[in-house]
Each structure stands twice: as C-alpha cells, then as structure tokens.
Amino acid sequence: MAPAVVRVAAALLGAVIVSPAWAEGWPAGQPITMVLPSGPGGSSDPLARLLAEEMGKRLNQSIVVVNRPGAGGNVGMAQAARAKPDGYTVVLSWTGPLATNLALYRDVGWNPSRDLVPVGMVGCTPNVLAVSPTFPASSLPGFLDYARAHSGAVSYGTTGVGSSWHIAGEMLNQKADGALVHIPYPTPGGPMADLAGGRLQAIFPVIPMTVPHVRASTLKVLVVFSERRSAVLPEVPTTAEAGYPGLVSETCFALLAPTGIPAEVIARLNGTLNDVLAAPATRERVSDMGLTIQTGAPDRVTAFLATEVPRQASIVHASGARAD
Question: In the record, which residues are listed under signal peptide (predicted)?
C-alpha cells in the first residue's frame, strides 16, 4: 500500500480524541448540520434527507441537510473539514470526494490524512451500462463487439471528468480497446436527454437515476457493475456474469465528522446511524433507492478507503484524466 494511502487510512482510524463524558443529548437550540457535497435533487439528496430525518428522531435533535456542491464535492468536504469538532457538523460523502478526487485534483481543498474522521458506512450502489432501447446490442459482450467494430462512433455521456459515470466508462473503454468517446456534461439531465434523443450511445448512471427510466422504457440496462445483482433490477446480469469479473464500479456512501470530535459523540452517532439502517422501514426505503446497506464500526470506512483510494487512483491514472 502506498505511504499516502496508509496515512489516510491511519488518520481516519485513529484521529478520534477522547474527552470527558458526553451529555445525554445535544444542547437545545442548535441543529446538527449534515453537509452534502452535491446540489439539491441529485441521487444522494434523498438518502441524506432520510438519514437526517431518522437520525434526528432517535437523537431528539434537529438535523439539517445543507447542500454544498462544487469541484466534484471538494467544496462541501472542505467546509465540513473546517467546521468545529463539536458534534454539530457531519458530512455525508461518497467514493468520488473520498477517493477518486485524491487522484483527480492536485489540491482537494482539505487534508484527507488529518481533517475528517469516520462515523460509519451507509451503503453502496453500482453503476450500470445503459443504452437506448433501439441500440443493436443487448449484452455486454455484444456492446463491446459493436464498439470495436465502430471505433470512435460510440460515445458515452457522463456527469463530468472523474465522476462515477466516467470511472465506469473508462473501465469499460479499456475493455473496448479505447473505442469509446467520452462526452462530459455538467448535470445528469444532459446525458439522459441526449441518450433518449440518439445523440449518445451509452451512459453509466448509478441505479437510483436509472430505475425510473427503465420503468418508462426509455432506456435498457445491459449490465450492473457489481459482484451481485441489484434487488431493484434483478433481471440485469452483473459484469462477472457477462464474462468480466472484477469490473466493478460502485458509489459507496459514508458519514464523517471533523477531526477532534469527542469519541463519545462518534460512538453515539455511529450507534444511531446503525440503528436507523437496521430499521425495516428504512431498509426498504434505502433498498428502493438501489443501495445495498453496509453498517458497522467507524473503522469499516477506514478499511474501505484503504483499498478504494489506490484502486481509484489506478483507474484515474490509466485514463489520463485531470480536473485541474
């Protein structure tokens, strides 16, 4: 493991500071801020608002979701990193800001090795390969054969350089011998519309964005970039089933807090998060979003990043992508 990755993992595991016993509840009059490093209406927005609502009920404390988009999530992450470690700020982040951006940007605006500590994992949702209903291929091998036979004529749209859509597309482009053409967009609506209009041949959205379009028959999904089938798209094969084991691209969510937060607060937040995700009603709603729930102690986030940071770096470097 690279030294920088070791530092990131070690910091996220060991930076919680023990302090005098935390009171039974947060002092009244000040809500907890849950920073979300993306804009309103994105695929992460419903998840953040669900967690804020359910955790707030259990903590008897108001939790307010604050959207802070910009620079692929770096703006929101930097704001959370600069917040006081008093238990009143958490950040719901995901693979992009936590791992991909570290290879994509020269300066992410916060220090991954010292600024934030994990509260707990939330869950993961895979990317998919989606094409228009009239696309001539109906399987991953068929798509790759078509792309190679029409090199340079098959374009795929993404939500920007370094996005999970782009990472999945670059992984598949390596299997297509570089035949695919990347077209970045500023928002998800652009590639969705252009796929429907025939101006794109493929997109690689995460499942929450995909399901409504599948139900409306405006696109077809050829494969899920995961080791297991999705509960909401059970008829769609995985990349391994399609003959490409190891071709995995997932967006995983985790809750974090500023370094220096009392250990008792981390423990209470972690326990509350796990209780929320264990509740049947919450599990059903999260599953309907296309996420597979992952719970556990804070060090599960550390273990995830210890493998995901170098994996994302390898993909980004192979693609030659830079965001600054």
Answer: 1-23
